[in-house]
Amino acid sequence: MQPIREDEDDILARLEARLESVHEVISGLKQRNAELESRLREAVSDRDAALADAKSAQEEASQLRQETDSLRARQKQAASRIKTLLTQVEQMDLLTEG
Length: 98
Prior knowledge:
- The chain is an all-alpha fold.
- Helices cover about 100% and strands about 0% of the residues.
- The chain has one domain.
- It is rod-shaped.
- The mean pLDDT is about 90.
């Protein structure tokens, strides 16, 4: 009966070694998973910040476009008024010369 006992001990030792190996692999995978989840949270946070920055930049660009359009309209209006005033001044010069 002794040889059977030795075979059982050998099988149990191999099983224990395998279980220890599996435990190490699982522990490593859990640690890697935790690291990846942390990196994912950081990436999501970075993405959200970038989206917020982009939205803010779009709003600012829109506001600047509106201001530019308003300034162009005022510039055109001022140019038109100046043209009208110059025409009036020229007409007055013609009247005073004669």
